[in-house]
Amino acid sequence: MQKLTSYLAAMAIRTMGRLADHTPIKASPPADAAVRLGLPWNFAWKSEARKARLLAARRTASVVAE
User: Is the confidence at residue 35, as pLDDT, over 90?
Assistant: First the structure.
């Protein structure tokens, strides 16, 4: 029973850590850096596919502006 309890506690801690890593925080350094680069503040927490689409749209907009 002791092993099961420690295993469940370890799983709970890992799960909470993963959730904390993926929770967007507007006042965090990654959010500030994204805003300085002209990206949405939650850019660091978006999926890789969504990041690629945003960057492609940004490149297209900068080429059109030139």
Answer: yes
